[in-house]
Amino acid sequence: MWTILLVEDEVFVREAIRELLDWERHGFYVAGEAGNGHEALAAILELKPDVVIADIVMPGMDGIELLKETRKAGIRSRFIMLTAMSQFDYARDALQFGAFNYLLKLSLSDDILLENLARIKEELLAELKGAGEALYPLYHRIWAAIWGTGAPVQADSAELALSMEKFRNLRLDIVAVLSGAVPAYAEQAGIRPEPYLLVQTFHDAGQTTFFCWNFEKKEGAVCPIDAERMVDTTAGSGLACLEQDWLQALKQLNEVWYNREIDLSEEKSGSVPVEVLEAELIRRFEERDECKSAEAAARIWAYMQAASFSHVEVKKRASDLLHILMILAGRKAEDWSAVYAAVTHESLLAHVLQTIRELIRQKKEEHVNYTDHPEVNRAIQYMLEHYQENIKVTDLARLVAINVDYLSTVFGKKTGLTPIAYLRNIRIEQAKRLLLHSKLSVETIASQTGFTDDAYFIKVFKRLVGQTPSSFRREQNK
Questions:
Q1: What CA–CA distance (Å, rounded) separates 475 from 478?
Q2: What burial class does residue 144 get, using C-beta atoms within 10 Å of its C-beta: 0-12 exposed, 13-18 middle, 19+ buried?
Q3: DSSP assigned state of 135
Q4: pLDDT over 60 at 227, yes or no
Q5: Cβ–Cβ < 8 Å for 398, 437
Q6: CA dihedral 167, 169, 170, 176 (to 10 degrees)
Q7: What is the tens place of the pLDDT at every residue in 164-215?
């Protein structure tokens, strides 16, 4: 609730004001009282009340001096000044120094006071909304850490600090929704905005997060969120626990993502690491084996479900995998909106399988006609599809059913290279793609491009490209 400090040197007047309203019913509560200006200033510095109701004429430090000192301290409490009939000059001075209003003691009533408090409440809510806009860079920064991609939005530190001060005593409920490609509305998430001071919306990667700000709830208060199946809620303690509470809300979406109950204490485990399963998918894809590629992808998805990967982790792995597969297929990476928009584990797997099928079929439909010799072209096609394997010239000769020496001779005439040199160039080109567009280690790339010895791979790469694989990656990604 909005806080009020009562400042009045006459005890009976202070008590009368305190008893004038059911403060809490109207969203306020009396956080403190003071009998003179000096006591009031100390209380203001400690409590930073939203509203100060103060007598103008008091011994020691009067209400106007109290207002001046409060403003010097950078505290923007709204002042309602109480004055007697003969004190209008003081009242005008109070307004000049930023008092919200002045009220006559003799005519003070609950209606008059409520009217002023209602106007103050509107100002406070508008101010809170404006301060809330400055929190979005903080949300983006935390989301960038959770998602693990992209540079976080830079925030104005002074503006952010001021905004955080506004929210320091507020309670934060976080509601996460798997909403797909478009943001969800608060009502769709079962949120009734009226009981909240502010509801903020953050949408990215197929999920919408609602940050619902309110005063601390009392014991027995009813949560104004009607949680449904597509929604998960975390009731946090405010900005101090924002990242932790947001992660918790996202993890709780697992039951929706996998369409089953999830034990959040489950740990990621499995007999085979997921990275090994991903390498198997890449191998099968390079073989253009549609059926085995689909089986490998299904095993990855089963692993992630058994290990209860969050939907954020699943989407990150899906986009990284598809990125590598498109590079291997010689395609430009597309936007990942379909990946991010997925709202279930099964629907994302279906999209990945469809993409794999399309890439393999497109690759199979491509004809390599680098020469006018059909046997040489068949050998080239085979090398393009199986370059990660231990291919020998005898294997190619057997494939095209001609003599080894003849194949080597005609291959050299048509391409200018021996079959082994041609295969080596294919491997190096594939390695360059993976170095540029994946985070795989040099050792892994050497293995996946057909080099059994990573030291030999580095030696060959440096001889053909002019620099080591690591240097090439650094230079190209600057």
A1: 6
A2: middle
A3: T
A4: no
A5: no
A6: 70
A7: 777 877 889 999 999 998 999 998 888 988 889 999 999 998 999 999 999 8
73: left (phi over 0), alpha (psi -120 to 50) or beta: alpha
Question: How confident is the model over 64-85, as pLDDT tens digits?
Answer: 899 999 999 988 899 998 887 6
Please report where in the chains the tokens 């990945």 appear, as a residue. Answer: 352
| Per-residue model confidence (pLDDT) at position 222 | 39
What's the whole-model pTM score?
0.69
Report the C-alpha gap between 258 and 345 in whole angstroms: 6
Q: What is the mean pLDDT of residues 268-294?
A: 82
CB 154 within 8 A of CB 140: no
Least reliable range by pLDDT among 38-47, 81-90, 408-417, 426-435: 81-90
Q: How far apart are the first and last CA of the chain?
A: 52
For residues 13-18, give the mean pLDDT: 90
Dihedral sign computed on CA atoms, order 408, 410, 413, 414 = negative
Q: How many residues does the chain have?
A: 478
- Strand 51-55 and strand 198-204: the pairing is unpaired
The single-letter DSSP state of residue 371 is S
Which of 117, 99, 100, 113 minimizes the C-alpha distance to 27? 117
Q: If you search the block for the tokens 């990215």, which residue do you land on? A: 204
Per the DSSP assignment, residues forming a β-bridge with 3 are 29
**3-class DSSP assignment, residue 412:** helix
The mean pLDDT value of the chain amounts to 84
Q: Residue 28 carries which side chain, given as an amino acid letter?
A: F
Which H helix or E strand runs over 53?
strand 51-55
Provide φ and ψ at 271, rounded to 5°. -70, -30
Distance CA 165, CA 167 (A): 5
Task: Identify the pLDDT of residue 89.
Answer: 66
Residue type for position 1 = M
**Residue 8 burial (CB count, 10 A):** 24
Mean pLDDT over 124-135 rounds to 90
- The tokens for 429 are 């080109």
